[in-house]
Structure of Secreted metal-dependent hydrolase, amidohydrolase family:
Amino acid sequence: MKRLWLFAALFITTQALASDFVINNVLLPDFQTRELTPVNIEVADGKFKQIVDSSVLLSHSDVRDGKGQVIMPAFIDMHSHSMGNSSLDRSDYQYIGIRGTANAMLYAGVHGWLDLYSDENDIFEYRDQQFPQERDEAYVFAAGPCFTVPTGHCDFGETRLISTPEEAVTELRDLSGSKPNVVKVVFDNAGSKPTLDKATLKAFLNEARRLNIKSVVHIGSWSDIRTASELGADAVTHLPWHAMPDDIPELLVKQGTVIIPTVSVINELLYLHDSGSDEIAASVLSVPMTNALVEKDLLSDYPITAENKLYFDWIAGLKADGALENRNDAIKRLDAAGVNILVGSDGGNFAVFQGVGFHREMYFLQQMGMSPWDIVLGSTLKAYEFLGVDWGIEEGRPAHFTLHDKHIFEDLSLSTEVEQIYLHGRKVSREPLQDYANPGFFQYMKLFFGFEV
């Protein structure tokens, strides 16, 4: 009898999770022709079963009207940190943890994110649980620790310190047992902190390649990008604000080096510096999704006024250096040359809030001259290719998708107005996600005392 009840319970649970339906009248992006194709789609057992022309009627007991909206492949934020949201001076921090980040991402219509530095035990254990198969939250892909030198960038927590080629190989081999999705290493000669020498970086990248693990190199300058690409980095992340040397686009194309520029961090601060009404209206502060996911007290730090002299003067200096103009020119030239540009927000940084930051990254890339088609391609299919995941709107693949206004490929600011979110064919109820994405007192206590991560 006990076995019978167990079977019945499992059967009921499986039936509750299974979502079979037909969704008619949706527009499917064709990234080769750059056209939207009207289609009807059948979903069964959480996967795409049929994708047919809209003239072919599909019958089902559950038929849903897509209302001529765009059915978008699942977005992946290719650079974030599973911590939370920061005030400007770090005096206030909305810590939400890994589960909170997973909920914030999905609330924002982002189905996955690449964590590029967290406590390796916590992040790998959480990733391996594969929670999105049983509940509504985004998938985490993880690098685990940050590899750097003592006192170098990101040496303030769970890092792996490497100062010699031998240490690079030993530490990387040790980490490989956790099966990181990528590995991240710091090679940043732009600041005042120490960084790896070229011999250690070369050994690290060679060992990552031997282990068949993609490498992501945090850089600070165009010279750093040149060195990392020449030594075989799979990706570099961040975008310098000085003028880009002429040889960089061709080099990245030749080497097959991907760039994750994370333009939001500086661009958003430029919008929020000494801002007028037009800049505020165009900033993250005016996005409704921001208010749903970020504490009001934290948002009160922005915009950046002269009272906050340290950051006010820093951003003023960037403006004086022509940072925005230089970065706009770099993105246009990198894109025109055919460099693979992936979309990563650097969530957890100043004014880059979890989930919302991804959409702002897409918005800024369009403002900087990239085609919305190229941006969406870099946040979907090219991200899947880099991470080696079998996603996308094709028969037999998981039914992860969002529905958007049909004009989204003209104006990517519409991406924050996501209409519906589906995960494994389940239509996601967004409001419950806020319990973890924007937690109240009791959830904070769970995080504070370590009951959740």
